[in-house]
Structures are given as structure tokens and as C-alpha cells.
Predict the 3D structure of the following.
Amino acid sequence: MEKILVSACLLGCRCRYDGKSCADARVLALRDRYILIPVCPEQLGGLPTPRNPAERRNGGVFMNNGANVTAAYEKGAEEALRIAETLGVKKAILKAKSPSCGKGLIYDGTFTGAKIPGDGVTAQLFIKSGIAVETEETFVL
């Protein structure tokens, strides 16, 4: 069976910044046809759960308290890529709008809910490395 790397929160893991999951029934339904590999780049980067919300701004990632967590997001993206490459993963379904996993549209860094065109740190690295990235809002398999 083909392997797909998936944001762990979409599979029901309580790893979001607020300690909750956002299990997605459409993504979970894929487990009958694919091997789903859960990852949470934020946790892989060393961030705790729960943690303050973070958004991308000026090429970095900042929490709503002003803390610069760019290095943790970059480390988590690199670790997620290492997992994908080790397992031969060519596709990923990542959490929409996330500063780590979002693709095409992310929160704008003002913590107002406004969105701008852009990709999360992990999504950006995956795309650069040749891994096809979709979100739970865009995937068609």
C-alpha cells in the first residue's frame, strides 16, 4: 500500500497548539487504502502541547506573545522530512492554514483570523523536496 504522511492532528492526536485534535473523517477514511503516517512538526521541533498560538510573519514564525519560534518550526520540518524520506513517502496531507503545515493559504501573523497566500514551514520544505502536499481541504485521492 502507498504511504501518505499526515498531520497527526487530522488523525485525532491531541497535538494542536490548544491541546485538541481536529480529526477529519475524510482523512481517517483513507486508512483503508493507504498507510497513514502521523507527524506533528511542532512537537518534532520540541514545542510543548499545549502552547501559545503561532503564525508566520516576515519569513519567521512568532507566537502571540511575541516569542520567535522559527527555529523550532524549522527543526520540526526537517525531522518530518527525514521521516518522509526514510519511509519513501511521496505525498502528504497537512493541516490547512497552519504556520507549519498550511499550503496555499496561511494566517497572516496578526492573530485576527485573517489569511494570506503562503505555505507553512513544513509544507514549503516538502514541496521544495519533491513531496506532493495537499491539505484536508484540498486533497483528492
The mean pLDDT is 97. Residues 3-53+70-106+117-135 form one domain. The helical segments are 25-28, 41-44, 70-87, 121-128. The radius of gyration is 14 Å.
